[in-house]
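Reopening this one. Same input as before:
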Amino acid sequence: MLAPNKMRVLEISNLQKSFLTPDRKRHDVVNVSDFFLEEHAHVALRGESGSGKTTFLNLIAGILKPDSGRVAVAGREMSALPEPERDRLRATAIGYIFQTFNLLQGYTCLENVLVGMSFGHGVDREKARRLLDRVGLRDHQNHYPRQLSTGQQQRVAVARALANQPKLVLADEPTGNLDSANAREVLALIRETCRENGAALLLVSHDREALGQFEQIEDFQKFNNNASNDPVVDHL
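Same output, byte for byte:
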């Protein structure tokens, strides 16, 4: 049930996506009848590798087009937009934190954040510097990704994801390449900075330690490929 005075930043209905296997058989990857996320909510999706979680996030972000169904982000129907408008909505309303960081190797930390801004509301160098300072990289803004540790690279990815003040942040196994200490620190940072920026957070993971930091956890496999059941919410 929607909480009083809460808006839905994400709404999904009857979302389907399948791919052809090498032997030309159709493989259903995502089949979600109903899912929504309220503004400011922090929700973790639990699911094993290969269960379709990344495809689900890419459908939400408009990186992939669904075979059918509806995805609405910040009140706009992502799935119905032409590609240029999908790109614009993704740049302004969604921040995406990738497991593999997806940093531009030929650009400094600061430039990586500025490039992210250039696709959204516009470049603000001072704001980019403040974001990098906030994620603990004040003295590394002119470093290149190859000069950073794995944990520091993920911090740049967090700053870039928040650069355009998105309504929704998607995090795809964001601690998957980090050791346990860095994973806890980065995950806490993601949640703190999302709260500070007023962004809802949807994180997918199969790591129990990462999931254990969330109060609201949904089992992806219980509502994917099972249109008759509503999402089940666990509280740890």
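So the earlier flakiness isn't reproducible anymore. For the record, The CA atoms of residues 14 and 136 lie 41 Å apart.
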